[in-house]
Amino acid sequence: MTDTAAQIPEPRADAPDRWALPDLAARALGGAVLAANDESFAEKEHLIQPYPVVHAAHTFGAKGQVYDGWETRRRRTDGHDWAIVRLGVPGVISAVAVDTAYFTGNYPPRVSVDACRADGHPAVADLLRADWRTIVPVSDAKGDTRNEYDVDDPHRYTHVRLNLHPDGGVARLRVHGTPVPDPAGFADLPLDLAALANGAAVTGASNAFYSNPTGAIMPGLPASQADGWETARRRTPGHEWLDVRLAGRGVIRVAELDTTHLKHNAPGWASLDARDGAESFPLLERTPLQPDTPHRFVLTGDRPATSVRLNIFPDGGMARLRLYGRLTPEALRELETRFRA
Hints:
Residues 30-179, 199-327 form the Allantoicase domain. Pfam families: Allantoicase. Pathway: Nitrogen metabolism; (S)-allantoin degradation; (S)-ureidoglycolate from allantoate (aminidohydrolase route): step 1/1. This is Probable allantoicase. The strands form 5 sheets. Strands 12, 13, 15, 16, 17, 18, 19 and 21 form an 8-stranded antiparallel β-sheet that branches. The longest helix is centred in the C-terminal third of the chain and has 12 residues, at 329-340. This protein has 2 domains: 19-178, Galactose-binding domain-like (Jelly Rolls, Sandwich), CATH 2.60.120.260; 183-340, Sandwich (Jelly Rolls), CATH 2.60.120.260. Strand 2 (60-61) and strand 3 form a beta hairpin. The radius of gyration is 22 Å and the shape is globular. It contains 2 helices and 21 strands. By secondary structure, the protein is mainly beta.
């Protein structure tokens, strides 16, 4: 057993800070703005852009001041404006942020958010007829502000609808929550037990100076050095680590440690320790890593695990962590129960 295996903490029993939960509407997870009743001044797709809002004053196009956001015309009739967003990963929503950055005289004075569950691949016409539930009631909003709203709703949702009362502009929409995938899509096949899209989560990291550790379990190939988890340079003895709660209890057979784009800041070595309840055991002994390289390790153990700690020596970055295996029958049944709730 490695010297860190016994130190892996039990996953937190209480709910994590809601603003630390992943953005279920993120474009990187497959989120999309499907429809809006109006986008006369600025396009609806800006709502879920991943980068910070940018703005240059006195830049006018054919439709007026150019905004990095969604902006509707001045409403002269009753009603309100709306945009429908498909969540990249369906789940339980805990908080919503409506960011009106740089919208100062044209922001909506009030907003609300509805959500619906429409599994499969519904068309916009289907969504317009869906059973929408209010998760954020009509609430005051301020201009040039990240307006934050808590959500207390245990249901699983696939889409949200942002409502502007009566009109105006919003730069970004963030929908923080806990992924709840459809286990039927696993089809009893091996899957990445560390994937956020499958219900895994980062529960802790020793250092997250340069990037959000959740990047290590995002889908797709890393796009740049910033797309993943990277620590500061360590100036004291020891090493850095990342804890991941698996999508469910399962047996891991293949581990992928990807240092793509990390050319001069990859770890020198890495190891993996697993936890199953109160018991810890080594999954991958300390192993040398190469810069800018996807590493694939076939594991021989057959012990199920509920969480894994990635240790990197002494510091550096990890673009992606993949842990392929199978859920136990009990874990699969638990996911099915949660999906149906």
